[in-house]
């Protein structure tokens, strides 16, 4: 489907999802603008993306950016998205992740009033909103019980999105995305932490990997698949909310087996369980039901957990080899 001439603005453009989404939209013929506080952190941004600097904890220049870009679609991915860090920085997390969403929504509403143009808005909601689950699998109607400052902030942002849709008639929808990973995942997230450590252990650059609760179970998919679902949501005739997930759950232990096994290593020889990495409030299991997205969007995941683990291992193995070569040269 060609979208020549359409304009998109992506907040958090230099994150994992922002990088995949910008590539997807550029391939579809969009003019893409990206927003983040700084470019020097996170993923490299495609040079075809017009970058704007803005801090979601302030947002004072959002009206100017919207008037400059005049976007048809806004994909709001910007957030402080690390769950464990949200316990250490709860006020910052809620300010950026929760109130930051409200700042974007209100800026869009005011922009629409000034220009009489409709802007379609996508909110990056999270499976962490379910927290202490009351049913399995989780659907669009499952009650929320968040177990972290991050999860609480996402619930706030999710309901503000619904409120702006119902109160002001905005085309505003949320994708309740379950865990999605890739070689571009931040190094502090458990899947990437595992693949980085395993490849470094394989090459003798590291001796152990310290982890917290390896029995926690998650529904893991590939970020490249999930950004397609974001785009599909904004192409629908009416705005709705959708769970995006594989429908399968796997433990951190299972992911360890896949990753270390691919490298012909026994993970039990290298992994140390460290209580310091446990969360103050644990989320033991999350598993999504994306049947609504399959039915209405025609979306389905393409990459399996095994394929995802191997993709991440091969990417991080290249980094580890470069590190080893540099160490030898030095």
Characterization of this structure:
The protein is of the alpha/beta class and 330 residues long. It is built from ten helices and 13 strands. The protein has a seven-stranded parallel β-sheet with strand order 3-2-1-4-5-6-11, sandwiched between helices. A two-stranded parallel sheet has the order 7-10. Strands 8-13 form a two-stranded parallel sheet. α1 links the parallel β1 and β2 (31-36). α1 (16-27) packs across α7 (223-233) and α8 packs across α10. The longest helix is centred in the first third of the chain and has 26 residues, at 90-115. The protein is globular, with a radius of gyration of 20 Å. The model has no long low-confidence stretch (mean pLDDT 94).
Considering the chains and any ligands shown, give keywords for the structure:
330 residues; alpha/beta; seven-stranded parallel sheet; two-stranded parallel ribbon; globular
Beta-strand portion reads 15-25%
Distance between the termini: 50 Å
Biggest sheet layout: 7 strands, parallel
- Which regions contain 5 or more consecutive residues with pLDDT less than 50? none
Strand order of the largest sheet: 3-2-1-4-5-6-11
The chain-level mean pLDDT equals: 94
Overall morphology: globular
Q: What's the total count of β strands?
A: 13
The percentage helix is 40-55%
Q: Give me the strand/helix succession.
A: EHEEHEHHEHEEHEEEHEEHEHH
Quaternary state of this entry equals: single chain
Content-based structural category: alpha/beta
Radius of gyration: 20 Å
